[in-house]
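Weekly puzzle thread! Below is a chain. First person to post its structure in token form gets bragging rights.
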Amino acid sequence: IAAGQFNHSIDLQGKIDAMNVVYAAPRGQGGIVKAVLVKNGDRVQKGQLLLRMDDVVQRQSLVAAEQQISGIQAQLDQANSIYERQQNLWKQNIGTEVQVLNAKTNAEALKSQLASAQANIKLVKEQLNMANVHAEISGTVDQVNIKVGEFFSPQSAAMPNSGIRLVNNGDLKVTVMVPENYLGKISVGTALKVILPESNNREINTKVSVASKYIENTSRSFTIEGKLPNDKDLRPNQNAIVKIQDYTASNVISIPLNTL
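Winning reply:
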């Protein structure tokens, strides 16, 4: 028996969670799926194309908008030519000043119409791009529950068993629900030991990075989180036993209960 440091821990059930879990969703109203370009387990980069939807209407609108620009551009070229000729004639004292002003006004009006049509082209192209669904984060495709021919919308994308789910396993955490009677003993910085039963009881040491200030009514508990290292063997929703250090004392004599 000798004096030393005594640490007491409580054992609670926890789980591994990903800080970045994203459900891919269309930016517009959605549409009929024409192509799914990824499958479960694929690695994707941020901005990568995941899915294409029907865009026939948007493409027709783009063709019409481009044709409109071509027509306005031709009219503007003619109006500018007429304006230059009227200016040259006016300099030679031929014609009237009103003719010059009218030609200038017509050219400026067509120039304004062209700018408006060009802005409309950008809008139509943006609407066309809304038929494509891109990855918002880099990570792994964890779920693909959408097929060609189905209707895909922001509402269906948010449903648990629908759409495409992306997980970034490079940014993981362990989450634990802690009974409220430990509220004053556990805070940010408290030591955690994470034990993974399905991984040969592998142990990971970390600290509390987030301690919730909210206590749930039903369970009378609060949530804590601890960051985990980047490891390809760790999986979101993997079960874990978390030992939380709730008391420590130095220079004390401690005797095992079994010995007593």
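Puzzle host: Confirmed. Bonus trivia for everyone else. The mean pLDDT is 86.
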